[in-house]
């Protein structure tokens, strides 16, 4: 059994994958973990994102639950901010869900 990579390289991998998500697209926590090379690390990704410094330029709002729900409650300031940022990028929410078939980012489709 191999040891897990040190925390900082794993965190940097999440940040790099997060920075690559284009405006108007979303990913799930599990998808972000896979993009960062962390396998099934969805909960850990959530932990890392929850500790981003206030005012971070990383597009944390583009990471949502696998079922399309924004990750933060709509009544919280951060939850309102997440929804506002998604709408500003053209991501529509219907009954507080994002259509993952329409808005999920597929990096393979981004390659020309």
Automatic annotation (TrEMBL):
Species of origin: Pseudomonas oryzihabitans
Ranges of residues in domain Methylated-DNA-[protein]-cysteine S-methyltransferase DNA binding: 11-91
GO molecular function annotations of the record: methyltransferase activity
Alphabetical list of InterPro entries matching this protein: ATL_DNA_repair, MethylDNA_cys_MeTrfase_DNA-bd, MethylDNA_cys_MeTrfase_DNAb, WH-like_DNA-bd_sf
Protein name as catalogued: Methylated-DNA-protein-cysteine methyltransferase related protein
Pfam families from the UniProt entry: DNA_binding_1
Aminoacyl-tRNA synthetase keyword on record: no
Keywords: DNA damage, Methyltransferase, Transferase
Gene Ontology BP, a term: DNA repair
Gene3D superfamilies: Winged helix-like DNA-binding domain superfamily/Winged helix DNA-binding domain (1.10.10.10)
Keyword Methyltransferase: yes
């Amino acid at each position: 059994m191999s040891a897990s990579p040190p925390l900082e390289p794993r965190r940097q991998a999440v940040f790099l994958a997060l920075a690559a998500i284009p405006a108007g697209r979303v990913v799930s926590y599990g998808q972000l973990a896979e993009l960062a090379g962390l396998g099934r690390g969805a909960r850990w990704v959530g932990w890392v994102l929850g500790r981003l410094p206030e005012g971070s330029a990383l597009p944390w709002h583009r990471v949502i639950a696998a079922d399309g729900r924004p990750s933060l409650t709509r009544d919280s300031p951060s939850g309102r901010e997440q929804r506002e940022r998604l709408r500003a990028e053209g991501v529509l929410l219907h009954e507080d869900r994002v259509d993952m078939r329409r808005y999920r980012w597929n990096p393979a489709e981004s390659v020309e």
